[in-house]
Amino acid sequence: MTPREHATELLATLRACVGDDAGATEPMERMAEAAGQVPARLLPAVDAALRQGFSEYSSDGWPRLAEGELVRFMRLPAAWGVMAVAASHRIGFIREAAVWGLAASPDGRAIPYLLLRLNDWVKEIRRAARAAIEVFFQPAFAPDVIAALPIVWALARKNRDDHERFVSRVLAFLRAPACAPALRAGCSAPDREVRRVCFELLIRRGGGAEHEAPAALGAALADRDPVVRVWAARRLARAIPAPWADALARGALGDRSVQVRRAALAAIAPTLSDDEARPLLEAALLDTHTTARWDARVLMLARGPFDLAAFYRRSLATATHPAGIRGALLGLGESGTVDDVACVEPFLSADRARIRGAALRARAGLEPLTATEPFLAALRSPEPGLSREARRALEPRLSHVGIATLSGLVADRTLALHARRNALALANGKSKWDKLPALLDACGDPDKLIANIASRLLEGWCARYQRRFVRPTPAQIEEASASFTRVAGRLGARTRTEIGHILK
Questions:
Q1: 4 phi and psi angles, rounded to 5 deg
Q2: In whole angstroms, what is the distance from residue 465 CA to residue 363 CA?
Q3: Is residue 271 part of a domain?
């Protein structure tokens, strides 16, 4: 549900609570249930919708409320839901009465609604909220405080009042030994920021940090969110060389997220001897992600001379696992010489598409920039991944590829659509006047997708026309004019007028 939908539901339920059957148990329970189901991250937006979107008393907005009515509700069970919504009323006296009503409630679900009022625009209400929230700084309410942490972080970014002291108060409360069970439960909260804070507080809380750290970091490294796992891997660096931390870091080296693997390697490698670190670094040198390989290179070369190209040649000759073959190919493409093309070529016809793509990328790194034919051939490939790799290989070689060749590929309807799109993207990388006829011709392509892409690129060409003045040759003007004549009827009115004016 959107914030506005939540606000509409809350007001509809509130009308049932203050209607003719005011104080009835069933509407009050529905009110408490509806208020408790609003996610903490959405509450500030719901509060704004209640105040701004429903500011008039009407049949579809706020019901008529008086301060005295709230006092009557305070004596009723499940009244906190009514107080929670009333705390967003546009009248300050009603908001203040609702704040004291929330303070009198024994329900921890009232906490996020009180936190909102800590940044109220009325100073007296902020003061009342600060006093009211103190009631809930008890271990029994720790789970509710943890669930409301997103609002605490939102408060830290507000400048209507100095909230830094309050945020510190919340964190100090949660670090208390009595709150440890709630923190452990918070480590599986739906919100990843809440989980990360719970892991952090569980480790750093006074007196039990050493005992909690192994289990907490182990759980964090198994978390479903890679941001939490990266945080845990970086946090391990402070605990190594403890045996439990070393074991966790070695396990994180196999994480599916490259950022986790990088953080784990950076944490563990500096603490190991050369003999211990070598197998870990060599495994990382074969990672299929560029950043992980380069991190491993830096760490390996920091220990002394190391022939990277020879290592990748040996690995390519002995690797049997597809990921290892890909890592060796990519590494050789970064470290080898043109003589290594012969080692790479057999893998261009491998059974697996990803190995063929890695081999093509490796060849692009080894071949001189003047070599274009192998990559033009791969650009025509019916395999999208291989054609995409060929496009990447040709981007730094565009000065050696004629625009006529690229225009021919764009117009070749026997090619797969992805190959024609890649050729069009390369044509758009050519010089200002060289690419204009190619873009114009593509605007008239029978394929609507190609024509639409070319139209957008042509609009960009017009928008950037005056940024750099390059005088076209007569031949370029003649070629562009001929293309314009052929496709003028397919262009938008504005683009047609602008191109026509430029060519004149």
A1: -65, -40
A2: 36
A3: no
